[in-house]
């Protein structure tokens, strides 16, 4: 089974987020109302296609120009999606982690040309292919050749399938045990080509913690979420989430059932769609564990687009600035 097919089969189906960096303003109020009706109709079409719930936000300039919802955050109890509901955003998590890494580079705490083994004195890290040769720059760009734990056949059953231990919080290094050199080879030599790997960002999360002495969740919050006012964004399993987040659903296609299996506690909502809320995102951690509202993601995308500095200061008076264009281009 290819990674692409498995990723689609295992995806949480309750979230579709849209971001537009620039839209043409409608010349008249009547035209704007027509645009809104078209957007609302698009949400209805999405629900008719079988998506349990949708939350959509569109950015115009520096603001959220439109936001809308459809469907349910809890299908069985028929709870409508709220405009501020938080959804699992998957690998958009990696953009927050990359920003913190680049901040640490600007502060002189990290060197993009060093390797994970230069910062992590952990035996499990040393047992993962290429961790002593691939640079942090290559990890950020998915050019490290480090294999991903995400599709290893034992992990997929324990992490997403019929062997999940409900309520269990995975340790931050635990997924690395599924991509050691005795289980998976390197996908390529460092820098040779692009090869997407969740392991890259698990390692980057560990590096953030090693050089700061703080939890990665706390660093993301103090450096990014609080300065930018992203009040509906959290690292699930590693932060308290007031009010929680929407229920999780995923497609249980015949191929997914063959490769991963469906946990006996996950109810079938309709053919090939199951509710997986009883699980959690702890194995995803800094590779994919953030939950956020659609509007928060628009504001985050606008911040990435503009490269503005979030000027916060810790107790020591150290300024945590967003990376300069020069550093961003180098990475």
Describe the structure.
The chain is α+β, with helices and mostly antiparallel strands and 331 residues long. It has helices at residues 3-9, 29-48, 93-106, 116-119, 123-126, 136-140, 153-159, 198-212, 216-228, 254-259, 285-288, 294-306, 325-330; strands at 53-60, 63-74, 79-80, 87-88, 233-235, 249-251, 268-270, 273-275, 290-292, 312-313, 319-320. The strands form 4 sheets. A 3-stranded antiparallel sheet has the order 1-2-3. A hairpin with a 2-residue loop joins β7 (268-270) and β8 (273-275). α3 (93-106) packs across α9 (216-228). The chain is globular and about 60 Å long.
What percentage of amino acids are in beta strands? 5-15%
CATH superfamily caption: DD-peptidase/beta-lactamase superfamily
Helix content bin: 25-40%
Helical segment count: 13
Query: How many discrete structural domains?
Result: 1
- Whole-angstrom Rg: 20 Å
Could you list the spans in which at least 5 consecutive residues all have pLDDT below 50? 1-27, 309-331
Number of strands: 11
The CATH architecture designation is 3-Layer(aba) Sandwich
**Distance linking N and C termini:** 32 Å
Which series of helices and strands comes N to C?
HHEEEEHHHHHHHEEHEEHEHEEH
The CATH class name reads: Alpha Beta
Q: Which structural category fits the helices and strands?
A: alpha+beta
The main β sheet shows up as: 3 strands, antiparallel
